[in-house]
Structures are given as C-alpha cells and as structure tokens.
C-alpha cells in the first residue's frame, strides 16, 4: 500500500513554557511507493519518531492529511488503520509466552473478523516461521536474546498482515554484530512479505544499507528523499552531505573567483558557478594523492583500520569537527615533502554549497 | 581469610541479631510455652499442669468466638473492598492530567493525619450525643430514614462503622503504592495494544493487571495481616470494654486476657495469640500459593 503525506504538520506546546510552540514535523509532503522499504533518517529530536506516530495514528496531526492507498486515514484511530508497529524496546508483554504475544493481536479481532483457535494458531506459527522463531514459541520474552525478542516483536506486528509496517529504531538496542544480522533479516522479511515498511533510525549506515528509499530529516523539515546512493552522491544541502557517510565528509570554507574554486590560497578546481563565498564538501574518498596536486594539506599521520588506509591531515580552512580524513588505496604512492601532502580532487566527490543557505550549487 | 571474613560478617550482624533474639525470638518461644502451661502466673512463675486445656478453654469461650467472628468479618469485607477501591481511584488518578497532583495529595492526607483528629471526625460523623444525632444520621433523616446509633446501637451498624473506618484508614497507602505501580508500566505496552485494537477491558485484564500484580499481591498480603491485627482502631471507636460492646477482635481478646478487666490469664492470652498466628500463617500460605500462578515478577 502506498502512503501519501499531504502537508503534514505536527506542533506541540513546549513543556517548559506554554507559550512556546515546537514544530516536530513541518509540512511533510511526499509519497512512499507501495512495497518499498523506506528509512526515515535524522539526528535525535528531528521529528522522525513523531512522523512514525502520526502515520500509525498514535498522534493526531495539527494540519495535513495522511492517505493509505486512496483512503484518507487522518481521522482513523490506530486500530482501524491496519498498521503493524515495532517499538524501540520491543514492548513484548513480559508475562506472556512468545506464542501468546504473537496471538495477542489476533485475539482482539471481533465480530466477523473473529478467527477460530486453529486459524489463529496457524497464523501465529506462520508469522513465527517467517522471522525464524518458531522453535521458541513457549518461552517468555525474558528468556530470549535481544535479537530474538526483536523478531518476536516483528512477528507480532506482522501476524495481522498489516498494509504498513512501522519500525521505530529497530536495531538500536542490539550489539554491533547482531545489528548487521538483524538488518539483513528485516530486509529479507520485507522482501518476502512485500509490505510497505518505514523504519526510523539515526544511524545513516543502517538506513543506507537496506533501504530502497531514504528520507533525511532535520528539525522537523524533510531535507531530501531518494535512493540511498543518489542522496549520498548528490546531497541537496550541507546538512545531508554531513549526515551521510562514515567517515564524515570534510567541509572547508572557500570561495569562487573567476570560475575557480579556492580553498585558502589553493585553486583546487574549476566551476561554472558565479563568484561567491561557499562551503566545499569533499568525501574522504574524493582525494587523489598527487605530487603536483593543487590542494595542499599538512600531513599528520596514517591510520590503518582493517581494509582502509586513511591519511589524517590539517588545513586551516577546514571547519569539520575533526581532522581531515582521506581514504586512499594502500598502494597509492604518498607524497610527503616537509610535512605537506598534495591532492587532486574528484569532481563527483566534491560538493559546493552556498554559504548563505547551505544548499548545493 | 575466608574464616576471618565470615567472623567479621557475623560481627556486623550481631546488633540486629541481638535485638531480634531478645524482642522477637525469645518472646515467641515464651508465648508458645505459656500456651501449653495451665494457670501460669507471672508473679510466682508457677503453673498447675501442661496440656491443651488453654486451647480448649478459649475455643469454648463465647467472647473469643465473637472476637474471631468479628475479625473475620472485618478481614473479608475490608481487604477486598479497600484494595478494589484503591485500584479504582488509582486508575482514575492515572488517567487524568489536570489536578492530578492535587487529588493525589487529598487522597494521601488521611495517612499523615493525627489519629485523634481522625477519631474526632468520625465522632462528628457517627456519634449520637445529647446535642446532635451525628452528621450521617442527619443525612439519613433528610431522606426519610430514622436515626441509627452507630456507636452503641445494633451490631451491624457498629460493624459498618468499623469497616468504613478501616477502609478509609488503609486507602491512602494502597493508593500510593498502586498509582506508582501504574505509572511505572511502560507506555509502549499500551501503544502496542492500541495499534492492535485491544479493547479497554482486555487492556486492563491482560496487560495492566499482570503488570501491577506484584504490588497488588503485596497489598493483599499486608492487608490481610494488618486487618487480622486490628485492635487500636476498634478501641478508638468503641472504647476499651470491647467484650461488652460485642466488638472485640482477636488481638483485643489477647490484650484483655493479659491486662484487661478480666485480666491476669497469660496462658489463655498465649493460646489465643497462637491461634491468631496459625490463622495468619494459613491465609498467607494460601495467598502465596495463589500468587505463584497469577503474579508476574519481571
């Protein structure tokens, strides 16, 4: 089922002073196509969980409309929307077994929808098989690992075969290895069921790795929506560029003069844009070490972590929080004369942003 | 090293152990012994025989049987009612936003109010004097029901006042415990239940109740024990001659046997105390057995 958000806005009255209004979600206007896995991405407090709560109906929007398919669900209570939701802490009922937890939504069905015991058990087992916990049906949640608990929560959300599956920070309570495994699982389950799935995360790597589409948010505003690699390669503004990618993009203050991009004294590349003050964002993989390169940096050290070799260096125009990080092939020839290292820049890994509004040039 | 630490541990425990031995364990054993010694006398430390005579005597004493009956009525009425009312009030408190703090304070006031002040309030409510019929009677009169003497009148009226008083006195503590138990239930459980279309009743019986069951169970156990120990409230309401008023409780009977008007029978008092002990123990064991199935600790 496709999901359409139309000028969706949610405002809260601030807890500290009642006169102050906080806009958690600001004029969201986009469409999520049917059957896609969508990552809602942004730093903490950017309104992504509020967006999820609006879609599932736990929160009522201040303005705007929500459509599932062609149906306007804005005024529908959560139970009539046909959504399944997995909470960050899983919210499994601790006093019920895995089976009872998965059966719980089915037992709520009333009237014509009411199912027989056999059908309910069948459906519960089917959901359990899908997430591969069908051997743990009689255990209590406290007897399961974090990853297993999470799969039970997914099974419970899926057992009513909802049109939309919502996951709130599904991986943040898992350790690093399990996180990798579980995100593959989520991808697989979503592919098998074909349910339109939205998940919220602040971890860009997580979102990039499994999503069909990502939506980057900041302070209640949608910044950019698109395929992960597209958003990474063509960030709409400085925030998106900085938020995506590890190590983070290196940001420099610079200017354009006579169709040349200057960082400090170095004219690093050509451009067609007008003269103006700019920010230059260069991905760590956007540097080519070159003895005659145009961009000078002060060499600090080389760090090798696993397969990556990175050069750490400094430049006075750099305004990133940390040092400049350059990822190079380990067999690249390094030129290091008197502590100065020179690079040429890959144009497709270098992004120019207007200093005025931080949008891409 | 191990032994020395062990010794040190016992040394730290010593003050507590000493107090418990002197004031709890020794008296317990003593009472147990007295209850089998006939006509034990404190002054002369003498007794006339050993056997079950004391038990036989009190179990045939109409005053004791009346006390047992009163205590059981009190327990059976006040424990479920007070817990139930406390649960209802806590649920209501938990679901309102405005004035929640005010109501919480109001409901907690009886807990910190002086007993004498509470007694005075109940006198104004129920006691018939030369000057007034009492507030409750005035209310009854206004709807056309004739006055009832709640303090010196018929048995059921006195029992009603006692139960009313007991419930009112124990409510604040129970409300306090239950509101905090309700508040500590993670809101996500309710959100999940809402998304799954769970009815209000089912949310209450399948989620809320199991989640607060440890607190509820604690209140029921302590409620039973507290109600079985009822004495001072009864004295406050009906005076010291409880046997004459027909409102004695088991603890009251024990006290009367030791010091009261008929006083000076420690053997009978000990036997009665042990009967109470047996009753409380039985009820608590039953509670524990029932709870094993229905109480969910996390």
What Rg of chain B is obtained from the alpha carbons, in whole angstroms?
24 Å
Number of domains of chain A: 2
Question: What oligomeric state do these chains adopt?
Answer: heterodimer
* Number of strand elements of chain B: 2
Biggest sheet, spatial arrangement of strands of chain A: 6-7-8-3-9-10
Spell out the helices and strands of chain B N to C. HEEHHHHHHHHHHHH
Which fold does the CATH topology of the domain at 55-106 and 172-294 in chain B refer to? MetI-like fold
* Class derived from helix and strand content of chain A: alpha+beta
Low-pLDDT stretches of chain B are none
Distance between the termini of chain A: 36 Å
Spatial ordering of strands, largest sheet of chain B: 1-2
Residues in helix, % of chain A: 10-25%
The pair of chains with the biggest contact is: A-B, 24 and 19 residues
User: How many helices of chain A?
Assistant: 8
Percent strand of chain A: 25-35%
> Which segments of chain A are poorly predicted (pLDDT under 50) over 5 or more consecutive residues?
none
CATH architecture of the domain at 55-106 and 172-294 in chain B: Orthogonal Bundle
Q: H/E element string of chain A?
A: EEEHEEEHHHEHEHEEHHEEEEEEEEEE
Straight-line distance between termini of chain B = 37 Å
Please state the overall shape of chain A, judged from the principal axes of the Cα atoms. elongated
The CATH superfamily of the domain at 55-106 and 172-294 in chain B is MetI-like
